[in-house]
Amino acid sequence: MRRTAYRVLLLAVRGRRERGGPWGEAVLAEFDHVTSTGAALRWASGGLRVAFRERYSSHPARYRLAAMALATLAAVPFLVTVHYVPSHGMEPTIAVTSRHVLDQVAFRVTGIDHGDIVAFPVPDGPDDFQTLRRVIGLPGDRIECSEGRVLRDGAALDEPYLPSDAQVIGTECAAVTVPDGAIYVLGDNRDVAQDSRHWGVISENKVTGRVIV
Amino acid sequence: MPRTPHASPQTLRLFEALMKDPSTWRYGYDLSRETGLASGTLYPILMRLTEQALLEAGWEPSDQPGRPPRHTYRLTGDGIALAKVRIADAMARSSAKRAAGVSIVRPA
């Protein structure tokens, strides 16, 4: 145990060099005088800090870069996630079985906008079954359908992302005014998609992410 | 307000240990035992003080053959002056607090 601690400290202080920095060497030289095994372990673990500090002060830029890279790596799983698409509801924009990167944090700051594709758990499914749909209506919007086109506050939406057959067949929906804290979502593949036409509006706080790519 | 340098409780404990006999050279491990500071706390303070010429460091050949030389430390003139000021400040502060009816518990 003691030998291992010494070896680790030696490696941290010297690396592949013949001799480490003076402070690392100072901690190493004292190691022999440390009495109990527990104290020796504590001494060695503090020594690691000293060795790191000494190296850091000689190459601050390199260590700052490494720390930044490490922090980014640690933060990424909280910031973004990968979503596997299980349905045809967003075709042709989003192909079934494709994978997309979702932002999980930034949309809470910037807010959701018309045309964003957001992820949320399917209202009539289990919580971990998420789906992607396009945001058509935000709080206060009046959404209705007329002659196969979707109207927002009375103006027909230009929807170039729809599949060609849906452009011909059109969209039918019941008129609704989106209440506060909710969004109205539609799938691009209007023929097959389950969306706000069936579920009604989705609560904004159910949204778990927004598609980046 | 900018922080006063070298006024942390840990630095203060080190000052107290070094000021017992400012002229003798001290070993790192002995200082660690006397102050109760772990090596990871003690050495960064020693490094900082040495950088600012408040502490001088030297190498002393070990008394037993085959062992590496040991690093030794003592306060410089500037260091002694600063340590006196910091210790006096700390004592004034603690007595002021006691007068105000606040008891301070110093960790062992």
Automatic annotation (TrEMBL), chain A:
Residues 67-212 form the Peptidase S26 domain. GO terms for cellular component: plasma membrane. One of its GO terms (molecular function) is signal peptidase activity. It is found in: Cell membrane; Membrane. It holds the Pfam family Peptidase_S26. InterPro entries: LexA/Signal_pep-like_sf, Pept_S26A_signal_pept_1, Peptidase_S26. It is a single-pass type II membrane protein. It catalyses: Cleavage of hydrophobic, N-terminal signal or leader sequences from secreted and periplasmic proteins. Its main location: membrane. It is an enzyme of class 3 (hydrolase). Keywords: Hydrolase, Membrane, Protease, Transmembrane, Transmembrane helix. GO terms for biological process: signal peptide processing. The chain crosses the membrane at residues 65-85. Its EC number is 3.4.21.89. PANTHER family: CHLOROPLAST PROCESSING PEPTIDASE, SIGNAL PEPTIDASE I. Belongs to the peptidase S26 family. This is Signal peptidase I. It comes from Actinoplanes italicus. The lineage of its organism: Bacteria, Bacillati, Actinomycetota, Actinomycetes, Micromonosporales.
Automatic annotation (TrEMBL), chain B:
It holds the Pfam family PadR. Coiled coil: none annotated. It comes from the Bacteria. Gene3D superfamilies: Winged helix-like DNA-binding domain superfamily/Winged helix DNA-binding domain. InterPro entries: Tscrpt_reg_PadR_N, WH-like_DNA-bd_sf, WH_DNA-bd_sf. Residues 37-79 form the Transcription regulator PadR N-terminal domain. Transmembrane segments: none annotated. This is PadR family transcriptional regulator. The lineage of its organism: Bacteria, Bacillati, Actinomycetota, Actinomycetes, Micromonosporales.
